[in-house]
Amino acid sequence: MPISDNHIHIGQFNEVYYEPQKISDTILETGVGSFSFSSTTSCKDGVKYKEIEKEILSIKYVFGKAHPFFGLIPEYIQQRIDIESVSQYIDYKGIKIHPLAQKWDLTNKKHLAVLNETFDYAQRQKLPVLIHTGNNTVDMADRFEIFFNRYKDIKFILSHCRPLENAIEIIKKYKNVFGDTAFVSNESLRKIAKFGVIKKMITGSDFPITHYLREREMGKYINIKQQYRNDFLKLKIQKNFIETGHMLLPETVSAILRYKSVKISKKL
Length: 268
Fold this sequence. Notes:
- By secondary structure, this protein is of the alpha/beta class.
- It has a single domain, classed as Alpha-Beta Barrel (TIM Barrel).
- Helices cover 43% and strands 16% of the residues.
- It contains 11 helices and 9 strands.
- The protein has a 9-stranded mixed β-sheet.
- Helix 8 (186-194) links the parallel strand 8 and strand 9.
- The protein is globular and about 50 Å long.
- The two termini are 21 Å apart.
């Protein structure tokens, strides 16, 4: 079965703009089966929904391949933007929440109202909800726990599984809570497997943030297409571990891919 990359971004990320169509083309060139994406432009101060809508609509439609996620932000309350109304124009396949980038206040009645309204819609439409997690108080894996039991038919995905022990506990506790593999190390995956929830992990790369971190923070230049080829290789390793429990080395996977490529070319 083709690999799905369930954690992709387009748009503005800090000082770099990742052009939507270029990102889509780069991903599809690898042979990935499908990908789910959201726009990091929504993290920009003063962003208007029309900017996000324009980015998503700029990607050439590829049937069954590119799945847009609605990035829910508190600013949409004032803009009177809700997923049900905007879904008339874009067929959103999921919802993304980033509590570190956006200031969600779970004691604020307006914030709670829009979250419940969004989750009501997600449950009716059977849409997954991807939630960024981290090691800060505002984005720990249990930050949105009050909703996990209330919306039992929603598939909640804890992106990055951070903090790891906290994420494992939540994933074990709720049948409808999963994790994704974006920036999850092999060592952490082994620990997740040890606690019996490896089958609840979903493959995701967080590309092109992987490219940004390598170039801007590590100071190591890499062609963006090569970066995604590296990310795609990692997805294959993670998928194999999730399915079989065996952690393949990158060179082993590369050799298998080369062998398959040779067999296909001979048939042609």
